[in-house]
Design goal:
Length: about 375
């Protein structure tokens, strides 16, 4: 059974008139998370259709019955069937959705709960659909920007391995047969030394690369290591600026959607912190929440964290003073989503020439190092 904690499991079991004897958290040592099996597109389609049906006056159970029969995702159909059965058993729609936290996160379930309480479930669902569409667009932009560099890096590693493992040793054999091994230029000797190390210690090179990757993953799984990596990532030139803009866009869009749907500010800030995607930003939001709970406004603590740009904080302050904070946050989100478009395009345009120069320079050095002795020997033969 999936739940946020042991108390959640016990509550759900008691709701089914079952008495839990023992509740134990599943070990994650060898657990591979393969995801929920429900794509963002599936969720957006469900949310939009559900909003339309609710607006048309259809009961929730009937909506769920229709949608679970129409979806082509079998895993999602099973989940919707379970949600429908839970609602039929007397649970609220939001509590039924909480039975599947991998599909319906805190943001989704809390907004649905706010819609149930306020009697505006169709409006809330429409806002959720818009929110997820914009979040998917932002994710596609980031993934699209990473595809090209990733492919180029893989190709570069492949080409370099072929040069070091096969091409250079072939030239080395030629030079040896020509008796010119002791008269080679320093550049050629250096490249040949690197090739020999690669050939004789290829297993060590491979294990070292794997060790670095495993080490970074292990570091990331620890709270302090994850915080360290997130802090460094925000300080990387160019890339850090893009990551900060993405975080600001996500923060303002999520908080604006929550506040506009009637979720209390403290609850909204807690939900936003959990969906921040960066430990440094999460801590900044939770610090702001603690200060707001003490009676302060939102803008002041946000400025104290030194995480969010001054313009964002000032616009949030204006939104608080005018009583239109949700609208102001959505405007900020629109602006920063456009900024992410420009930043990602600029990052891609900078990465492309850098990659080309690196690959071209490496291959060029190897070719020059291998052909220098050939030109030298040819010149000597002509002179003789």
């Amino acid at each position: 059974m999936e739940a946020d904690d042991e108390a959640g499991v016990q509550m759900r079991l008691r709701a089914q008139q079952l008495t839990p004897v023992k509740v134990k958290k599943k070990s994650k040592a060898f657990n591979i998370n393969i995801g929920s099996g429900v794509s963002g597109k599936d969720l957006v389609t469900f949310t939009r259709l559900f909003a339309t049906m609710i607006d048309a006056g259809l009961p929730i159970v009937q909506c769920l019955d229709i949608l679970q029969g129409q979806t082509q995702n079998k895993r999602f159909a099973v989940i919707l069937r379970d949600v429908k059965n839970s609602v039929e058993s007397g649970a609220t729609f939001s509590d039924s959705l909480r039975r599947h936290p991998r599909v319906f996160d805190h943001l989704y379930t809390n907004l649905v709960q706010a819609g149930e309480v306020g009697g505006i479930l169709d409006t809330i669902l429409s806002r959720l659909a818009v929110y997820h569409e914009k979040a998917m667009k932002l994710a596609r932009q980031v993934r699209g920007a990473m595809v090209y560099p990733s492919v180029v890096v893989v190709v570069f590693i492949g080409v370099l391995s072929i040069l070091l493992g096969w091409v250079i040793p072939s030239f080395q054999t030629i030079f040896k047969d020509m008796g010119a091994k002791n008269e080679l230029p320093a550049l050629t000797l250096g490249v040949m030394a690197v090739s020999q190390f690669f050939v004789h210690h290829i297993l060590i090179v491979f294990l070292s690369m794997v060790g670095i990757i495993v080490g970074v993953i292990a570091l990331y799984r620890r709270p302090k290591g994850k915080k360290f990596i997130h802090r460094i990532s925000l300080k990387i030139p160019i890339i850090g600026d893009v990551l900060r803009k993405i975080a600001v866009a996500r923060f303002t869009r999520t908080l604006g959607t929550l506040l506009g749907s009637g979720v209390p500010i403290l609850d909204a800030l807690e939900i936003v912190a959990k969906t921040a995607g960066n430990v440094i930003i999460e801590e900044a939001i939770m610090y702001t929440r603690a200060k707001v709970a003490e009676g302060k406004n939102v803008a002041g603590p946000l400025m104290e964290t030194n995480v969010f740009p001054a313009m964002v904080v000032q616009m949030v302050g204006v939104g608080e003073q005018t009583g239109q904070m949700d609208q102001m946050l959505n405007k900020i989100a629109d602006f920063y989503e456009d900024e992410v478009d420009v930043a990602v395009a600029s990052l891609t345009s900078l990465i492309e020439p850098f990659m080309m120069v690196t690959i071209g320079g490496t291959v060029g050095v190897v070719l020059i190092a291998m052909y220098l002795p050939i030109f030298s020997l040819a010149g000597n033969i002509k002179a003789e």
